[in-house]
Amino acid sequence: MSRVGLAFRTCWFVLAGWLAVLLPPAAAETKLINPTYLGAPERNFYGNRLPAKLQVFWKLDLGSGRTQLRGKTPLWKGAGWTGQPLIVEEDGDLFLILGANDHHLRKIRASDGEVIWKYKFDDVIKGTGSLWKNPKTGDLVVIQGSRFGLEAKFSDPVIPSLRGISYSTGKELWRMNCRRTATYSRDVDGSALVIGDRAYLALENSIFTVFSPDPTLQRKRDGMLQPRIYRETRFYEPTDTKTHGGNIECESSPTLLDDRVFTASGAGRVYGYSLKWNRAGWRFETGTDLNATMPVTGDGCLLLAVEKQFVPGPGGVFKIDPSEPPSSCVKWFFPTGDVRKGSFYEWEGGIIGSVAVNHRTAAESGTPAMAAFIGVDGFLYVVEEGEPALKEWATGPDGETEYPRARLLDKVQLGDGSIATPIFVGNRIAAPYDDGLKLFEVTGEGKIRLLDTFAESQFEATPVCHDGRLYAASLDGNLYCFGE
Fold it and tell me: Per-residue pLDDT tens for 66-93?
């Protein structure tokens, strides 16, 4: 090589070295596998394949943390309701994003449970996050809520219980104040619905908030950087406090159906927010407490789980068609059993978790469209998703109105009770409950058949699956990876 060529080569290596130092590294190629609670804006996708066995491949100790509860500070372990891991494929590898009771949000390698980073919140993290992908840079933002703060006072002017965290670094990008309202909560349990450059979420103060997750659009308010807020709408009426007290918070995650966003409110009402008109219009009244997130069915309806509280009738599941007026939107109602007050915590019946549907994966297993849910009475129920061919009737939560009753295919007793949400993929169901985790198969005759049981822990968090692996957090302190 000539001296000129050698000099040119030396200069090139020097320049390349300086560029590597000065320029930021190229963003990783990411694919969102499970970007929000229950997998999709329609809240009806739980993964592509469940295993047939619950063999433990690895478990990760999530630790424990204290929280404020009725004047005490109990110690909570692991992760609980709703607690579903998000899944991201990054340069061919899978990673999980999960908040836990030890106050930390984690990025976890799915192959072996190794923690990549941790970010600490001010309190226990109960809900599931959501991911927003910047269309310009490809960067991901984790939108995550928590309880209101271990050291905070409910009357504090600023409670930053919703935050934006960088997926790549685990660093905080922004935080949002969950301001005080007539509700008795300033937590954030729900998972934001992300559509384009905007996110939609009713905080537990029952203020439905439309905001930008983009950290470049943040503004300084309340002494901290907060995301740009486009619109706020109150999801309760002042008169609701006369019947519900402060128990009018929103704990559910919003669901997208056509051009509207639907949210179940603790005030006993489903609100439909129009994306076209940027306001809430359609409202369905139940009178009871609503905690669950509503999945969209194969025929464009919503399945609403109902708790038994403030009403004389039973809790259970409504199938509602919001293209119809609220007075005629109910397609069927399925009641679940009551329990003696105080026998299972403070609940009296109905459903605290959400309904799972299988229509997105039913064709692959040759099964019909079905719905599965777990009652406070401890039963796992499987019903036909469609309208019943034979008209049987069921009394609704108000104790008076009669509705067509969904056709029950089968039910099995899990344990003493549960507030958990099952997942339903093809003809298999993973059902968490207070005494363990069970894996079932629904036969061609619609009967529930047990495949496997993991009975060493208490599960109330929602699991998620991908490629034959099942990821589920437990109140024993661990996140488990199951498979066969």
Answer: 999 989 999 999 999 999 999 999 999 9
